Amino acid sequence: MNWWKRLTKVDIRISDHLKLCLLFGFPGDAPLITALNYCILVAKYFIYSNKMNDNNQFDFYSYLALLKQKLMMEEQASSKKCDMLEYILSEL
């Protein structure tokens, strides 16, 4: 979570509530919450795809590259630019 804190200046402390939010997503529709939920969703996909390819090594920079690729694809597919996409892409 240090990456998220550096990116957003928001500190997230680990708790039972956090564990549930990581599993099901953070409640709310603020742009920062939406961006966080999207990052978590892509992280879950990254872990899943690595496991399916028998790759048990998880490189954070590979995750960031995948996140950037997914965001760029979302941006291209979108007819109007989303604040979440612009915000995360500018920070990568």
Provide a descriptive summary of the structure in words.
This protein is an all-alpha fold. It has one domain. It is built from five helices and no strands. It has helices at residues 2-8, 16-24, 31-52, 60-77, 83-91. It is globular, with a radius of gyration of 14 Å. The chain starts with a helix and ends with a helix.
Write the layout of secondary structure elements.
Blueprint: H1 2-8, H2 16-24, H3 31-52, H4 60-77, H5 83-91
Which labels suit this protein?
5 helices, mainly alpha
Query: What is the residue-averaged pLDDT?
Result: 82
Dominant shape = globular
| Oligomeric organization of the protein chains | single chain
Distance between the termini: 15 Å
| Main sheet makeup | none
Total domain units: 1
Report helical residue fraction.
over 70%
> Strand pairing plus helix content: what structural class?
mainly alpha
- Total helical segments: 5
Element order: H for helix, E for strand: HHHHH
Strand content: under 5%
Q: From the alpha-carbon coordinates, what is the Rg to the nearest angstrom?
A: 14 Å
Q: Give the uncertain stretches in residue-range form.
A: none
Number of strands: 0
Structure at a glance:
It is built from five helices and no strands.
